[in-house]
Amino acid sequence: MAIDTVPAATRATATPARPARRPRRLSHRTVVARTVVGLLLAGYAVVSLYPFLWMVSAAFKTQREVIAGGHLIPREPTLGTLVDTWNRLHFFDYFVNSLRVTVATTLGVLVIYSAASYAFAALHFPGRRALYRLFVALLFVPAVVTLLPVVLLENRLGILGTHLGLVLPFVNGTAPFAVLLLTNAFRAVPTELRDSARVDGAGELRIFLRIHLPLARPALVTIALLTAIPTWNEYLLTRVSLHDPADYTLPIALQALRSSQVVQYHSLMAGALIVVIPVVIGFLAAQRYFVNGLTGAIKG
User: Do 45 and 181 reside in the same domain of the chain?
Assistant: First the structure.
């Protein structure tokens, strides 16, 4: 009887490997379709970015150069327009007012609706589903419909014309989307983590703070951005509510640039750039969490 003297490792090595699969070649029609879609998206991006680029360009031009037009890049760029607009309109005071209202609104939304969403996702109480559906249904109510009732209610409460009169409606208006997004994020947390924490003696508050909040960080950042940006840019309710110029926010301060008969376009664009810069910086800093948070909401 013949004895096999070839080691097993050698036999395994000698086994011919399967040929690597060649990448599937795309058809000519698919290549053309993707090229057309790419060109359309690129054109849409250029059209969408052009007003923003024109605003940035005009902020570094003089009034005469803005009116002359014809070119996007300033021929004689200057920081004088930005500095003059900042100093002449006391933008720092309005900046502080906008920051105060935005931070208070964002913190209120995160604290209140993260706790409410945890209750909807992890706790069981009578009427939970009906109350959750009511919150979601509020997404279909236009904000402008509630403008007059809000103003009348704040007038009776004595908070009309104050920053608190802005913060409370802003917090309430963000409720539907915040509850929807955060509830889906908390439902994605495995129930085994909660059960094991309860076995170890952890209460609901500790489970909420130590387990759910860290795991829902992308959703929290997304809610913070979607709350802060509209609050920072809000004009209608702010214009109707505030009467003291010392309490004005940045969007109302921009209106002062158009109060004269001759519109100073370079100053107007400089003021708009000052308003937009914090929003752009905040979005770029939290872009990764923002995308992850929206992806989790869609999956949920």
Answer: no
| Total residue count of the chain as it appears in this document | 300
DSSP secondary structure of 146-164: GHHHHHHHHHHHT-TTSSH
The owner of tokens 């060649």 is 22
Kindly report each contact of residues 200-204 with a partner whose C-beta sits within 8 Å and lies 24 or more positions away, as own/partner.
Answer: 204/122, 204/123
Domain endpoint, select from 43, 78, 113: 78
Specify the number of domains making up the chain: 2
Per DSSP, helices labelled H in the chain are 8-14, 28-59, 63-68, 80-88, 91-122, 128-137, 147-157, 164-173, 175-187, 191-199, 204-207, 213-215, 217-233, 236-241, 250-255, 265-285, 287-299
Which CA distances in Å does 269 have to 58, 71, 236, 264, 272? 6, 16, 20, 9, 5
Domain carrying residue 37: 31-78
Global confidence as pTM: 0.79
Instruction: Write down the mean pLDDT value for the chain.
Output: 83
Q: Environment class of residue 296 by beta-carbon count within 10 Å: exposed (0-12), middle (13-18) or buried (19+)?
A: middle
pLDDT of 24-72, one tens digit each?
666 778 878 888 999 999 999 888 888 888 888 888 888 888 888 777 8
Q: Whole-angstrom Cα distance, residue 134 to residue 145?
A: 17
Phi first, then psi, for residue 203 (nearest 5°) are: -85, 175
Per-residue model confidence as pLDDT tens digits over 231-271: 999 988 898 888 888 899 988 888 777 755 567 788 888 88
